[in-house]
Write a structure and sequence with these properties.
The structure holds two protein chains of two kinds.
Chain A (H helix, E strand, L loop, with lengths): L3 E12 L4 E12 L3 E5 L6 H8 L7 E6 L2 E2 L6 H7 L1 E4 L11 H10 L8 H14 L15 H12 L6 E5 L7 H18 L2 E6 L2 H5 L3 E6 L2 E2 L2
Parallel strand pairs in A: 3-8, 3-9, 6-7, 7-8
Antiparallel strand pairs in A: 1-2, 1-4, 4-5, 9-10
Helix pairs in contact in A: 3-4, 3-5, 4-5, 5-6
Chain B lengths: L6 H11 L1 H39 L3 E4 L8 E2 L2 H7 L3 E13 L5 E7 L10 E5 L8 E5 H7 L6 E4 L2 E10 L3 H4 L2 E4 H7 L5 E2 L1 E6 L8 H15 L4 E4 H7 L1 H35 L1 H9 L4 H36 L13 H28 L2 H6 L2
Parallel strand pairs in B: 4-9, 6-8
Antiparallel strand pairs in B: 1-11, 1-12, 2-10, 3-4, 3-11, 5-8, 6-9, 7-8
Helix pairs in contact in B: 1-11, 2-8, 2-9, 2-11, 2-12, 9-11, 9-12, 11-12
Classes of the chains: A alpha/beta, B alpha+beta.
Chain lengths: 224, 377
């Protein structure tokens, strides 16, 4: 077995000066190229876990390691989010003033790297949207797109900086069953083609069971 | 070719999204910069016209008591000045600001009929006045504003003066002025034997000596001979006389207040914008944008607002200067020209104002936690 790409140790997260404990000592290791689903009832702590895995927030105690580097010290959270993980949210979170093609370029604007100059940004964004089957919707604003199309733009955006890990928080939560199936099919296809690590938070059993590894969380602790 | 998103385009789209607010903010900063351009431009054109007047007459040094508005220099000192070896001509003059009609006030000069300063003027109608006579010469701009011509009578401080000549002067300070015989000005002000200043034209500098050194040695010689009087080089006199300093102080004071109001306008716009876009800032942070880059985006928007407002302001200020240059009340001291330096200063101030106004909202935006910002409604 390879070294874990992501590992959490004794992870705790509390709010409201400790009165609310969202995570109560979670240990978890996820390996490169794995497809993992995390499910649990509302308030179980699954979204909090995803936020900590994605470097969106910091733990009250415990640690999150990316390739054995502690997030927030050995590697900055900004750098981690910009280059190593891609996020997909339930509410899409596209920027309303930007067209689909421009939305996909936003993460690229946030990093400076060789060969990622402005002409390449647009070309790469277009290629990603084509991969999502949106070549005819490049110039649409988010409010001109269907919910399924918006989520596909969001997936293209998550892939913009070629991350190693894709984190999806209820990616089908706002979609009908047809679009849900299509989005999950896309995510799994991307994970397999690119050999990425895919972590999906879901409350839908079908989706949870579709992954080779399914983690259940309840009351801030991993059940299985 | 796919459309590429640049940082500047992103900033512009954020501003364009709320057009009305952006427009109103532009108006605010535009008016502030317009006030700056109009007022400071007015004071600088005043200074520039003053210098032009000295240059066109060939005056190198003005010999004055202390302030330009005092007419306290002894006229007899003129003979001693004229006797100095480096002095070509020394001519006495009086300067005053007079109400010619309830609407029109103008600079009034008292000159001797043989003053060398007439050399810079072109008489377009009539003739030069004679000393001792109640005669006046009007600049062509003033004559046009007053609708007076040669042969008409102009009443100045209840004394009738016959207009004997209309002249064209290189400077607006001359074109919009009235020139009276020196003795008549002394009579009007009950200042017999006193003058405001002597204007001195030096002989050419000896070969091998720079003009600056030549003027400096003449200054020293004059001040040594006439203690209590100041010999001021023409360029310095143009920029530091009390009228110009007063105009500059008023211009900067008023402009500063207008700029402060403009800065508050941008600050308010940027603060509201950051508040309304809290979730979007959270998205940017979630996508890996570093704090400083979020700050840079907000500051870019503020700077664009400042720059665009600056351009609007320059247009407004230039328009105001054009109006001032045509109004009878101000035509004698205003010029519609807008130097490049002034434009650069206005744009620089506008951008700095934008950056100053955007600093706090940008700092606040950059400090937002991604999770908190994403939860924001």
């Amino acid at each position: 077995m390879t070294e874990p790409i992501l590992e959490v140790r004794r992870l705790r997260k509390s709010y409201d000066e400790g009165r609310i404990e969202a995570l109560r000592g979670v240990d978890l290791a996820i390996h490169a190229g794995e497809f993992v689903t995390i499910s649990g009832p509302s308030g179980s702590g699954k979204s909090t876990l995803l936020q900590l895995l994605g470097g969106l927030d910091t733990a009250t105690s415990g640690e999150v390691l990316f390739k054995n580097n502690r997030l927030g010290s050995a590697i900055s959270l900004d750098t981690y989010r910009s280059t190593h993980v891609g996020f997909i949210f339930q509410a899409f979170y596209l920027l309303p003033t930007l067209r689909a093609l421009e939305n996909v370029q936003v993460p690229m604007l946030g990093v400076q790297r060789n060969g990622n100059g402005s002409p390449n940004r647009a070309v790469r964004a277009e290629a990603l949207l084509r991969e999502m089957g949106l070549e005819h919707r490049l110039r649409q604003f988010p409010n001109e797109l269907s919910a399924g199309e918006r989520q596909r733009v969001a997936i293209a955006r998550a892939l913009a900086n070629d991350p190693e890990i894709l984190l999806a928080d209820e990616p089908t939560g706002n979609l009908d069953s047809t679009n849900s199936a299509r989005i999950m099919e896309m995510l799994i296809g991307i994970q397999q083609r690119r050999g990425m690590t895919l972590i999906v938070i879901t409350h839908e059993d079908d989706i949870a069971r579709s992954a080779p590894r399914h983690i259940r969380i309840r009351d801030g602790r991993i059940e299985s | 070719m796919a459309a590429q998103l640049s940082f500047a385009l992103f900033a512009w789209k954020n501003l364009w999204r709320r057009r009305l607010r952006t427009l109103l903010t532009l108006c605010g900063i535009g008016m502030a910069i317009g006030a700056f351009v109009g007022l400071v431009g007015f004071s600088r054109s005043f200074e520039h016209e003053w210098l032009r007047m000295y240059q066109s007459s060939g005056t190198d040094i003005a010999v004055v008591q202390q302030t330009i508005l005092n007419t306290t220099v002894d006229e007899k000192d003129g003979a001693r000045l004229q006797a100095l070896p480096m002095v070509d001509r020394a001519t006495p003059m009086i300067l005053n600001l007079m109400d010619l009609t309830p609407e029109v006030n103008a600079l009034a000069y008292g000159w001797k009929a043989d003053s060398y300063e007439f050399d810079a003027l072109k008489i377009v109608a009539g003739r030069r006045f004679q000393d001792g006579q109640p005669e006046a010469m009007l600049g062509d701009l003033l004559a046009e504003n007053l609708k007076e011509k040669v042969g008409d009578t102009l009443e100045i401080q209840a004394s009738p003066f016959t207009i004997v000549g209309i002249y064209h002067g290189g400077s607006a300070l001359e074109a919009g002025a009235v020139i009276l015989p020196l003795d008549q000005m002394q009579r009007l002000g009950a200042q017999q034997g006193k003058v405001t200043a002597f204007h001195v034209r030096l002989k050419p500098a000896p070969s091998g000596e720079s003009q600056e050194a030549w003027v400096a040695s003449a200054q020293n010689a004059i001040q040594a001979m006439l203690p209590g009087l100041r010999a001021v080089p023409a360029a310095e006199r143009a920029s530091s006389n009390q009228l110009v300093l007063l105009a500059q102080a008023a211009a900067w004071g008023t402009s500063s207040i207008a700029l402060l109001i403009g800065i508050l306008g941008i600050a308010n716009t940027m603060a509201m914008s950051v508040f309304e876009r809290t979730r979007e800032i959270g998205i940017l942070r979630a996508l890996g944008w570093k704090s400083w880059r979020v700050m840079l985006l907000i500051q870019t928007e503020a700077a664009v607002l400042g720059l665009a407002g600056g351009l609007v302001g320059i247009a407004v200020g230039w328009g105001a200067l054009r109006v001032l240059a045509r109004l009878p009340q101000t035509a004698s001291i205003a010029s519609a020209s807008l130097p490049l330096l002034m434009i650069s200063e206005a744009l620089g101030i506008a951008v700095l104002a934008g950056l100053a106004a955007g600093a706090l909202p940008a700092w606040r935006g950059a400090r937002l936690s991604p999770v908190e910002a994403l939860r924001h409604d």
